[in-house]
Amino acid sequence: MKFILSTAIAICLFTSCAYTQNKDTKIPVATSTKPMAGEAIATFASGCFWHNEIVFQSLAGVRDAVSGYAGGKTTDPTYEKVASGNTGHAETVNVFYDASKISYTTLVAAFFASQDPTTLNRQGNDVGTEYRSVAFYRNETEKNIINAEIKKLTDAKKYRNKIVTEVVPFVKFYPAEDYHQEYVAHNPSNSYVQNVSIPDFIKFKNEFKGNFK
Question: What radius of gyration, in Å, describes the C-alpha atoms of the chain?
Fold first, then answer.
């Protein structure tokens, strides 16, 4: 969210207009914070985790998406440490879902559809290794599904540039600070939320052929 600091003045000029446009947008939140028996977990990083939470929580079959950090070398990541670029972690979401209602394949498709996977270490104006695109897999089946989606998008020439998403084994997920959880729902008037998170989410919903709640 470095975007906030570098463009705060410009954003303020558009906040009131954006709020009028987005005030009726339903922000998806976790249907429950209590783990369910037998649910599966998928882990993705693709820029600001505020945005990623609402993307995945909008999909039928997803119970919750928890913001956090993964992919780095430190064992005590915090928002400030991760933002320094020295931890190796990326802003990440753990997606808790019912595999009988939504497939891992669909989650991977949503992951790619909600970002630009060709921009190295950035999404939009959020720049740094903490905003890189990473698909974490827990087994060979998940790895193959991710690589198949990359091949599908590449063969279809979906993007002008090469997909740079990292495909790496899942090791450890560290939940982010409480104030980051459900951030969009709790801070609907925040300028970044209004001018980046919500417009990106609306674009995703308009373009992704998925089963939404």
Answer: 16
Q: What is the mean pLDDT of the chain?
A: 91
d(CA 75, CA 52): 23
Compute the distance between CA of residue 92 and CA of residue 176 in angstroms, rounded to an integer.
Answer: 9
Condensed to tens digits (0 to 9), the pLDDT of residues 145-178 reads 999 999 999 999 999 999 999 999 999 999 999 9
Look up the domain containing 31 and give its range.
2-207
Compute the distance between CA of residue 160 and CA of residue 154 in angstroms, rounded to an integer: 9
Containing H/E element for 64?
Answer: strand 62-70
Classify strands 122-123 and 173-175 as parallel, antiparallel or unpaired: unpaired
Distance, in Å, from the CA atom of 182 to the CA atom of 178, rounded to the nearest integer, reads: 9
E-assigned strands of 151-192? 166-169, 173-175
What residues are annotated to the active site? 48
Counting Cα atoms < 13 Å in the Cβ hemisphere of 89 gives: 28
Pairwise CA distance, residues 194 & 4, whole Å: 12
Tokens coding 153: 């998008």
Closest CA to 175 of 48, 84, 110, 79: 79
**Alpha-carbon distance 17 to 129, whole Å?**
32
> Is 187 part of a structural domain of the chain?
yes
- Amino acid, res. 199: P
Indicate whether this model's pTM tops 0.85: yes
> Is 33 part of a structural domain of the chain?
yes
**213 in a domain, yes or no?**
no
